[in-house]
Amino acid sequence: MKIKSCILFLFFLVFSVKSFATHIVGGEIFYDFLGGNNYRITLKLYRDCFTGLAPYDNPATIFIFDNSGNFIDSVEIPFPGSTVLPVSVNNPCFIPPTNICVEEAIYITNVNLPPLPGGYNITYQRCCRNNSILNLINPGDVGSTYMAHIPDPASGVNNSSPHYVNFPPIFLCLGVPLSFNHAATDPDGDSLYYELCDPFTGLSSTCPILGSQASGGCPMVASPPPYPFVPWLGSYNAAYPLSASPGLNINPQNGFMTGTPNMLGQWVVGVCVSEYRNGVFMDANKRDFQFNVVDCPNLPVASIPQQTQFCFGYNVNFTQNSVNAFNYHWDFGDPSTNLDTSNLVSPTWTYADSGIYTVTLIINPGTLCADTQANTFYIYPLLAPAFTAPPGECVYNNSFDFAGAGAYMGNGTLGWNFGSAASPSASSQLNPANVVFDSEGVFPVIFTISENGCTKSFIDSVHVYPKPVALFNSSTILGCVLNPVQFTDSSVSASPLTYYWNFGNGTSSILQNPLISYSSAGNYPVSLTITSEYGCKDTAVLPTPITVNPTPIAGFTLNPTIVTISDPYITMSDQSSLASDCEVFWGDGSSSINCDSMHKYTTIGKYTVMQVVENLSGCYDTAYSDITIQAEFFFWIPNAFTPNKNELNEIFKPNVMGVHDYSYLIFDRWGTKIFETTNTEEGWNGHYKNKLCKSDVYVYKITFEDDVENVFHQYIGKVTLVR
Questions:
Q1: What is the pTM of this model?
Q2: Domain spanning 472-549, CATH class
Q3: Burial 224-252 (b: 16+ CB within 10 A, else e)
Q4: What is the topology classification, in CATH, of domain 315-379?
Q5: How far apart are CA 425 and CA 446, in angstroms?
Q6: CB 308 within 8 A of CB 288
Q7: Residue 144 — pLDDT band, cuts 50, 70, 90?
Q8: Does the domain spanning 556-630 belong to CATH 2.60.40.10?
């Protein structure tokens, strides 16, 4: 009784505020096609029978509009009576609050609606909601609108609305996970889609009711759609209508609603179920209702999370998020054995076969505070699509074969997606072959297996490598036998290359820029084949073959090849053939275009003689031979001379040959130096300071080193000048 008193006190604090005309806590409107243009209209209204002030409408007036908003008709439905919905918790550990009361009235009428372009819209409007609602602005002055759309039967569509199966729980326990099946059924078997949505607002407290019961000054007819949504307060909206963590959520496929409220109070929530026929939208049943979040101390709640993973095989790891649980008992619903139970918190069970199993969890079994939850689990074989990406290929002539793998039954479907660059772009085969890509790059390939409502995909990539472009040039396309030809690569590639050259003469090379010579005349086609690191190839051919002309043959003889500087004459005899021109280079800086000639050397040493011959094609050849000019030492000097006498003995000069570091000096009898030279070819003319010297005896001094043995020599003597 202590727990019950605390809860009652809390509710009196939260819900004791009464307001004018407050009573609406939820509702919906839907229809059923009866044939012959007849429809059964059902209006469900839910009223707060504890704090609500206004009674149910008697009658309730619904309004019919065409799709353009034009008023067609109104229908008054007498009050059918109401039923108070039970407020109970399936657990003796918690006593439901007595200050929560919700009653349900179901208004039903039949109408005849002949075919109308665009169909009909049926609406009901009322005011107002509880003033204590926390997620709306000024909620005591916010009404409700419920609307349904009937498609035009002339379009070939006869439709009935989807019907919700159960009304949501009147209250939620603070901090306790909600698990409610908000599913609907559709009389036509249409596909259904669930979502949280914005409720429509309706009438205000100024004119809370329409039709024959409307007060003075209020309209008799409702306004046509479209209708505005309720004014949400703060951060609340259709997707987050109440304070919860995790937030309120509804599964779009099956309508299963989950969430854990974390704040006390009253909250308006909207849910829509939309129906589709062959992918075409038909209608949506928008229901709104009021959640009352209350404190439920020590309430045990068994909770098995809704299954979200499917086709994971037969081994299942079960989890639970129960509240106030101390002991657990699981029954895995496996009919193949009696051992399918566990008392662990989070057990594991391996099923013998695929199937649909009911899994039951009892918390605190055998006590008054026990609670039970059962969930349906769908056990299917493991879907594990996989494939090994084939090796990369070149963009030209590529053709890929794929081998898929993965656990699935014969009733599964395969989907293979190669992308828009591939032909074919998709396949339903397990092992598709001959898939061709039209461009280079890295292309993701998606392998998908679908079975038992499950879809699993595996993604890998294939590489299509670019084609390199072979390019090259040659230093010449017109050459001579044995003359080198330089080939230069200019190929284009995004990766390193290997090279194979074919020179057309039976030889080849793997160098990038080879230099070759042709040994015989002829025409030679040249090609280059390049290969990228991925094995992609390209070949380029020289547009014009290399033309190789004959080469003349150089040759000559020298006689003699060793001479002394005293007799330095060499004779060349031409021995070349097939030449039209010949030139000889003697090695001492001089040359001649006569290859049958004689040459005199003036300096000792070794010389290389080169002969260059050329034919009419511009081809040339060279030949070489060495000669030696040996040193020879010789010195003689006269003892008198007669300048300006007979022009025969006018210069006093020694005869010297084969020397170096030469010095020649003349002195008079008093020791005055009157002549000096280092040139072996220069002598004294008997003059000093431009005047002829007198007849007398003069002294000479001559020094040098000989070229034969590099021995130093010095000669001092006298010479007589005779005038």
A1: 0.49
A2: mainly beta
A3: beebeebebeeebebebbbbbeebbebbe
A4: Immunoglobulin-like (2.60.40)
A5: 11
A6: no
A7: very high
A8: yes
